[in-house]
Amino acid sequence: MAANDGEEDATVSLVDVLEEDEELENEASAVLGGSDSEKCSYPEGYVKRQALYACNTCTPKGGEPAGICLACSYKCHEGHDLFELYTKRNFRCDCGNDKFGEMECKLFADKENVNSGNKYSHNFFGLYCTCDRPYPDPEDEVPDEMIQCIVCEDWFHGRHLGCVVPDCVELQEMICQSCMNKTPFLWNYAAHIEVPSITKVSPCKGEEDVKVEVENDEEEKIKNENPKSPVDVKVQVNGTSACKRKHQEETEGSSEEGSCSGCRLREMKASGRSQTLQGAMFWPSAWRIKLCTCADCKILYADAGVSFLMDEMDTVLAYENKGKSTEQAEQAGGAEGRDPLMSLTFNFSSEYNDMKTELKDYLQRFAAEGKVVTPEDIRHFFEQQQSRKRRRANAGQYYCS
């Protein structure tokens, strides 16, 4: 429909709404699927990776930083001002310990005073990046995405990373410049397997570009030096970066850990290739299998506090896939063993998903034929739904004599 000023109004179809709803459901399953919404995670110890929150109401800025699990965010901090921290590794729920004063956890009160193994940052006060700003930031008028460093797990604005953010960033892992400097041996790996980019920019600025030379045959060099690598790296040319192959294609094949006679890192250092020690590094999907796992390198990782880099299941992608798999398994398990209320909820959810799928298919036929959907068409759809529902109910009725 045209607007009075001659411009077309932005329209959103019901199919778009349903697809967006499905996407949000998938995201929620990915982030929360591995977390229990009913039980505090404290008894599990320092959980490998879980969804976490910080309560600005109970532990405001200026106090002690603290993190709470998903269940405690629902049961103990309902109605409070919470910061969603996404996921953190090796964290134990703080809810109700000394950081919360006299408040006790409603789900698991028997807790130690302090979780000495937890690591905290300004994220726990709702602040992020090198600019130490909240997200979303009401004073920031620049549209920019936030990207998480896999080492310090802080979130950064793309423009504050000191490098050009490659395309297809969702298939890559990023390590910020600060963490790269704290693990200097990773610069050697960066010279061989990092996703290269043509332009480096100064952190927190972006006006002055510092050109970094990248040889035209960079991709061929990587392939020749790593003939069995499952990673297909594309070099960014003239500011345009080609996407890598899809993640499932890249991760085909297996790691040949221990197959080399020497230390891969030592060989990389001896090659003479170097990387400009500036900006964050973006790594290709499945890059971790290229890390050397010899005895000396394992000590190196441990001393730097990054032993988790050797664990492919440490990645956020692995956590999200586990969450999706868990939810799918629960749905496939049916309602057997559930209490009546949960069974009712489960059945309603299943019927809703079925109806949503059928409605989407129904509307897509109109889109394929270029027809306009009228209120009468929608009424007809739901009348068909009711008719089928009545037939199913009648077919399943039992009568007592």
Automatic annotation (TrEMBL):
Catalysed reaction, written as an equation: S-ubiquitinyl-[E2 ubiquitin-conjugating enzyme]-L-cysteine + [acceptor protein]-L-lysine = [E2 ubiquitin-conjugating enzyme]-L-cysteine + N(6)-ubiquitinyl-[acceptor protein]-L-lysine
Classification via Pfam families: zf-UBR
Residue ranges annotated for the UBR-type domain, each copy included: 38-110
Pathway terms, separated by semicolons: Protein modification; protein ubiquitination
Membrane spanning stretches: none
GO CC terms, sorted: cytoplasm
Catalytic activity, EC: 2.3.2.27
Enzymatic class: transferase
Name under which the protein is recorded: Putative E3 ubiquitin-protein ligase UBR7
Organism: Sinocyclocheilus anshuiensis
